[in-house]
Design a protein that fits this description.
This protein is of the alpha/beta class. It folds into two domains: 6-265 and 471-493, Aldehyde Dehydrogenase, Chain A, domain 1; 270-459, 3-Layer(aba) Sandwich (Aldehyde Dehydrogenase, Chain A, domain 2), CATH 3.40.309. 38% of the residues lie in helices and 20% in strands. The chain has helices at residues 6-11, 53-69, 77-93, 95-106, 110-131, 167-180, 195-207, 221-230, 243-255, 280-292, 312-325, 344-359, 393-396, 412-419, 435-444; strands at 19-21, 24-26, 33-37, 44-49, 138-139, 146-154, 157-161, 184-188, 214-216, 236-240, 260-264, 270-273, 304-308, 363-366, 383-386, 403-409, 427-431, 449-452, 464-465, 474-475, 485-493. The chain has a seven-stranded mixed sheet with strand order 14-15-16-13-12-17-18, with helices on both faces. The chain has a five-stranded parallel sheet with strand order 9-8-7-10-11, with helices on both faces. Strands 5-6-21 form a three-stranded antiparallel sheet, with no helix packed on it. Strand 15 (383-386), helix 13 (393-396) and strand 16 (403-409) form a beta-alpha-beta unit. The termini are far apart. Bound molecules: nicotinamide-adenine-dinucleotide.
Length: 494
């Protein structure tokens, strides 16, 4: 089958979408819709259903019925595996269409969207599909007259809430292992990036995921998200998003059925460059990509650059040069390296962070401005702010935009102290040719992942999650399966 071109896909009208409940689209109890703006040009793209409490109830009910009657939860593991493998194939075959739809919705540049969204989602479904019939329970070492079995039972109905920055990738990190373990899912995507995940629900139905097993309810966080997290019939919540919303989920859990909440939250990750880095030119190039790609809208972005005093000025000049060289523009143009900032409020918040940093004494080396492009829309120049102090807002607060805070340090102890001087603990990076120092830094940095002589990047085989106020859950790898099962003991008298 001929694949349509990016331009042809871009020109297609996007039909208004409803919720996906029990295997089909529904306009929702109230019929209310909300407008979706494209960050590419700031123009209306389509409408999605503005969900209500009744819609959440309908989706949770469908998920519960499906779970209890066993149409998926008790399907033979090989059967679930085949369905999810088929879903992975379908996603791959529609990769360009999914990626372009996602880009029109959230502004990520198309090369990255293809790799990190569409193909990554296919790979995630394939990975967890393959895990289904390789995931065993245990036999306890008991005396001979009893048999102690430890089962991994599915938890039931999983509520998932995801953000707008990588909806397909992050959504799949939750949906795929949840379905693999036999659960039913109700997903609430971000109100500003729902389209590609609705498409995944359609493809899941086409692949053979039974009705009611995977449902999507769109709409506002404070309505749909809150109702889902307060539901007495949702067994666990898995969440990726900001700290304040994560905090609310814990409150909702306490006010409802004490459901477990797994939170993947924000970060202010320190990328630390020692004077003995093996290749300072490479360190500058990779560190620039590590903060500026996707307009800095990456949870693990190396948004604080700590540079050893002896190389500070030269390194800041080099990273500034890289920042200025990025081609920022229309995310559906294959030559753009950085696409749009997700929304006007996000862009304005980023610009306010720059003004505030200057007010607190930081020095703007480059960027800090909105870029006006032919397409209109929301674009921001990669921004380097030097001389940022530990007490500054820019050092302590997540921007989630293309703004780098640079701070000098003296030695290893100073670097570790500065790296750990925020409430976050998501990621970190160390550039050094000294193996002993690399290990001491890995041990010393309080974070879920520490990169050495690189920044960003990883694959499905390793977990991603944070410590401190960056959260408590891990996506990816076989460890993620633990979230979606309960340990259940069978004690059998022989
Ligand atoms: P957000 O918290 O505003 O929204 C995330 C989701 O929560 C959305 O679907 C939103 O509708 C929903 N929501 C909002 N209010 C809610 C409420 N009261 N109850 C229930 N749900 C509610 O975050 P965002 O702006 O979409 O995403 C950016 C944030 O996500 C950043 O902080 C970023 O660091 C974080 N993030 C973390 C990771 C990670 O793996 N740790 C990955 C990507 C993004």
């Amino acid at each position: 089958m001929d694949q349509p071109s990016i331009d042809a896909l871009r020109a297609q009208a996007v039909a208004p979408r409803g919720h996906f409940i029990n295997g089909e689209y529904h306009s929702g109890e109230t019929g209310a819709q909300m407008e979706v703006l494209s960050p590419i040009d700031g123009q209306p793209l389509t409408q999605i259903a503005d969900g209500s409490l009744a819609d959440v109830d309908a989706a949770v009910r469908a998920a519960r019925v499906a779970f209890e009657d066993g149409r998926w939860s008790r399907m033979a593991p090989a059967g679930r595996k085949n369905v999810l493998l088929k879903l992975a194939d379908l996603i791959e075959s529609r990769a360009l269409e999914l990626a372009v739809l996602g880009v029109r919705d959230n502004g990520t540049e198309i090369n990255m969207a293809l790799k990190a969204e569409a193909y990554s989602a296919a790979a995630t479904f394939r990975y967890y599909a393959e895990a289904i019939d390789k995931h065993y329970g245990q036999v306890a070492p008991t005396s001979e007259d009893v048999l102690g079995l430890i089962h991994h039972a599915p938890v039931g109905v999983v509520g998932a809430i995801v953000p707008w920055n990588f909806p397909l990738m992050i959504g799949s990190w939750k949906i795929a292992p949840a379905l693999a373990m036999g659960n039913s899912v109700v997903l609430k995507p971000s109100e500003t990036a729902s389209l590609s995940l609705l498409k995944i629900a359609e493809l899941a139905a086409e692949a053979g995921v039974p009705d009611g097993v995977f449902n999507v309810v769109t709409g506002r966080g404070a309505v749909v998200g809150e109702a889902l997290a307060l539901s007495m019939d949702v067994d666990i919540m898995v969440f990726t998003g900001s700290g304040p919303t994560g905090r609310r989920l814990l409150e909702y859990s306490a006010r409802s059925n004490l459901k477990r909440c797994y939170l993947e939250l924000g970060g202010k990750s320190a990328n630390i460059v020692f004077a003995d880095a093996p290749d300072l030119a490479e360190a500058a190039k990779v560190s620039a990509a590590g903060i500026f790609r996707n307009s800095g809208q990456v949870c693990v972005a190396g948004s604080r650059l700590l540079v050893q005093q002896d190389i500070y000025e030269d390194f800041v000049a080099e990273i500034t040069r890289h920042a200025e060289a990025f081609k920022v523009g229309d995310p559906l143009n294959l030559s753009s390296q950085i696409g749009a900032v997700h929304s006007l409020p996000e862009l304005e918040a980023n610009l306010r962070f720059v003004t505030k940093a200057e007010g607190e004494g930081a020095e703007r080396r480059t960027g800090g401005d909105r870029i006006l492009t032919e397409t209109g829309g929301y674009y921001m120049a990669p921004t380097v702010m030097a001389g940022v102090k530990e007490t500054d807002t820019l050092f302590q607060s997540e921007v989630f935009g293309p703004v780098l805070a640079v701070t000098p340090f003296t030695d290893e102890a100073d670097a570790i102290r500065l790296a750990n001087a925020t409430v976050y603990g998501l990621a970190g990076g160390v550039w050094t040719a000294n193996l002993g120092r690399a290990h001491r830094m890995i041990a010393g940095i309080r974070a879920g992942v520490v990169h050495v002589n690189t920044y960003g990047g990883a694959d499905l085989t390793v977990p991603l999650g944070g410590v401190g106020q960056s959260g408590n859950g891990h996506d990816k790898s076989l460890h993620a399966l633990e979230k979606y099962t309960d340990l259940k003991t069978a004690w059998i008298k022989l």
